[in-house]
Amino acid sequence: MPKVLTTSAVITCPHGGVGTTVPSTPYVDAAGVVTGEGDTGTLTCVFLPPCAGYTLQSMGLNATTIADRKVILATDIQKSFTGLPLTISETTTLIDDSSPAPLPEGATAAEPSPAMLDDAPPVVVVVPPAVPFVSATMLPPTAIVTFTLTAAFPLAWDLRVLMTTPPGVSMDATNGLPSGLVVAPAGGAWSSPSLTVICTLSAAFMASLGPGAHKLFMTGVTQRGASAYAEATITVS
Fold this sequence. Notes:
It is built from two helices and 18 strands.
């Protein structure tokens, strides 16, 4: 049974930044303040670009509300302002076993589906994990980065380009980028247990990143909300 997300949970970004959630509804359980959809938080992330913070969003897998806002489950996928998945460790025992739609009075909830019982994260693999590029020679002329995602009950994926040149920029590349990043298939849909996403990087695209070690960051998410990621480092010299 999924736990409710409270302010006692430990939330971290992929770079180790620690989150602090500011609840807008003062509903206090013995273990902490219950969070609701739209609550925000800050992250102590010093990476470029910094993850900075987050806004909690419900996946719509429960019906419980507080002040007309969905209660957040600890299993709901959450992302930073830069689009990266957050790791949530909730130690409280406050459980929400409601169904997505409220049940009529006297009705009994159906058994959870296999997808809702599966809390295993997906497996995301990248090849190669490192792509060197020399701007003086514009070589290599192209680079191929392949992500393979595997999950029993997949939901979606997304791709980000993290430019580490100060002040740092996070770009949504799920549909590719006109500057020379082609993604196939594009769009973020994930319905089969195994998916391969091929990214083709042109020399013009890699040169446009500027000197530094930049990231091509892939996140996969299951129907339950479990996530995993892999990243390729594009080193421009």
